[in-house]
Amino acid sequence: MKILVTGAAGFIGSHTAERLKSLGHDVVGLDNFNDYYSLDLKNLNAKSLKDNGIEIIKKDLRDTDLAEVLPNDINYIFHFAAQPGISQTSTFEDYFENNIIATKNLIDYATQCNDIKLFVNIGTSSIYGLEATFPESIAPMPASHYGVTKLAAEQLVLQKSREEQMNSCSLRLYSVIGPRERPEKMYTKLIDLGLKGKAFPLFEGSDKHLRSFTYVGDIVDGVVSVIGNESKVNGEIINLGTEVEHTTKEGIEAVEQVLGKSIALDIKPKRLGDQSRTKANIDKARALLNYNPQTTLLEAVTKQVEWFKANF
Q1: Does residue 146 carry a catalytic annotation?
Q2: Which of 95, 146, 174, 187 is labelled catalytic?
Q3: 13-28, pLDDT tens digit by residue?
Q4: DSSP 83-113
Q5: Which of 73, 77, 121, 81 shows the shortest CA–CA distance to 102?
Q6: Alpha-carbon torsion 178, 183, 186, 192, what sign?
Q7: Burial code of 119-145, b = ≥16 C-beta within 10 A, e = fewer?
Q8: What's the pTM?
Q9: Whole-number pLDDT of residue 34
C-alpha cells in the first residue's frame, strides 16, 4: 500500500512512518519543518527516515495546492501534523490555521486521490477536557485552544464518513513518551536538565496530576493496526494509550532512578488548561483492534534516556 504520513519528521509521525515501511508499505512523508521547536530534532528524525528509504516532502498543509505536489495514488493517510500542546507562544490563529484549515485542505486533497481506503486522523485526549478518563461516547469538553481545534479537525475528517465520501477514523492519543519526544515535553526536558544538573520547571500542583504515560511503540502498534480493518473503524473515534496511571511526581522519580541522580524542581505558577487526569479507556480499541499496550513507565523512560544520551 502507498501511505502518506503528515508530520513525518515529528515525534510520533516519524516512528509511525518507519513502522509502516518495515511492514512493507510504500511510505511518503510530509512535513513543513517549522520552527515551533528546534529543527535539529526534526532534521535528525528526517535523516533516520531517509536512511530507511522514506521520502519527506517539505510542504505546508495550509497551502491549497496539495494535489499539485502530492501523489494521487495514496491509499492511506495518517494525519499527525498539527499545532501541538498548550503553549503561551502559540496564538489562537496558530491553532486554527494549523489544526483546522490544514486538515480541511488535506481532506480536499484526499478526496481527489484515486483509491483512498482510509483517512486516519490523529486526535488527542485533550479533546475530553481537564479530565480524560472517559469512553469515546462521552461529550467532549476541551479546555484549551489546542483541544478545541483538534476536536474541530476530528469532526471535519469524520464528516466524510457520514457523507459516505471516504472511510475515516480518529485515534485519540494519551500522553505519549519515548525517543524523539519534543524538547519542551516533560520527559525530554527532565532528562536534559537532569543530565546538566539544572532545575526542572514544575507547574504548581502538577506533581499530583495523573497521566497515562504511554510508550510510543505501544501507540504505534495501535495506529498501524487500523490497516485492513477499515470496515471496523470507519466513522469511529478510538482511544489509544495505557490504562496504567502515574503521577507527574512518579514520572520525575522514574527519570531520577534511570539517571541515578536527583533533579531539583523550580515551581512555576499553575498553567491554565492543563489536564489534571488522563487515564485511557481502551475497551473499544481492545474490541476492534486487539490493542494491548505492555511497556512499563520505567522501561519507556530507560529507552528515552538511552536515545537522548546517544543523540544529544
Answers
A1: yes
A2: 146
A3: 999 999 999 999 999 9
A4: --S--TT--HHHHIIIIIIHHHHHHHHHTTS
A5: 81
A6: positive
A7: bbbbbbbbbbbbebbbebeeebebbbb
A8: 0.96
A9: 94
